[in-house]
Design goal:
It is a single chain. The chain is about 35% helix and about 20% strand. Helix 3 runs parallel beside helix 4, helix 3 crosses helix 7 and helix 5 packs across helix 6.
């Protein structure tokens, strides 16, 4: 049986595992420092497609975590990798922010609203009816529908906000076309991260705080899965699912020593 001692590379979720808001969680700075000093291959994963790795590295630095930008893997980067593999040098109509736009440009895509190969839906705080209408018409005309992540809501100071999954549902209702969703819990997100690291699933571990995204996708990708109880899922939640993580820890501080 594979154990933690067999793990040579790590994938880890960000919110609820390494940080909560703008505060580093106990043990997170020390764990990142240990991986960097030991030369351990790792990536910090997030379903958030709004920000570039540079933006997120700056946010983590403010929180007390020194994570190089090349160690951050977003659903935007995974989505850009996916569409590039599907159609190199393709075109896309994008609803999203700098993280997604930059990733698609870097993948060699041209962004256009004229007969694009793909309509790519990502996260933004400024969804507009005009953009959504344009996306619906393009998809109805034959453009392939891609979404960076399935999250239906996001947090804000005033309460929850509609997120990518909710907007995707509206587009699906209007077109009858469901998107291919690249981000967690699609194991494609983890496989693209493994490719980035040139790593094999047999020697890679996944650390997450959600049974319904991190653990299930990690399991389906063949990774050693660790659920930490510092975020969304609780110990009582585990019994509700027909699958189990390989390990359950209070937080990443338990990985030290």
């Amino acid at each position: 049986m594979r154990t933690r001692a067999d793990i040579q590379c790590w994938l880890t979720d960000m919110d609820g595992v390494l940080v909560h808001g703008n505060q580093a969680l106990p043990g997170a700075p020390e764990l990142i420092r240990h991986w960097l000093e030991a030369g351990t291959e790792f990536l910090v994963l997030t379903n958030n497609s709004m920000f570039t790795p540079r933006d997120l590295a700056a946010r983590l630095r403010i929180s007390g975590l020194d994570v190089p930008e090349e160690r951050i893997w977003t659903s935007a980067l995974a989505t850009a990798d996916f569409v590039r593999a599907q159609q190199p040098g393709g075109t896309a109509y994008v609803i999203g922010e700098a993280g997604l736009v930059t990733a698609l440009h870097s993948a060699g895509f041209v962004l256009t609203d004229t007969e694009p190969d793909f309509v790519v839906l990502g996260e933004t705080h400024t969804y507009s009816f005009e953009q959504i209408t344009r996306a619906i018409r393009l998809i109805a005309a034959g453009s392939r529908f891609i979404s960076t992540n399935p999250d239906s809501t996001g947090p804000s100071v005033g309460g929850i906000l509609p997120a990518t999954g909710a907007v995707a549902a509206m587009i699906t209702k209007a077109t009858g076309r469901s998107p291919y969703v690249v981000g967690k819990p699609n194991p494609m997100m983890f496989r693209s991260a493994l490719n980035r690291l040139h790593a094999h699933s047999e020697v890679t571990g996944m650390i997450g705080d959600r049974m319904d995204t991190d653990v299930v996708a990690g399991m389906e990708a063949g990774l050693h899965t660790i659920l930490v109880l510092s975020g969304i899922s609780t110990r009582d939640d585990i019994a509700r699912f027909p699958f189990r993580p390989d390990e359950v820890l209070d937080g990443v501080s338990d990985l030290l020593g």
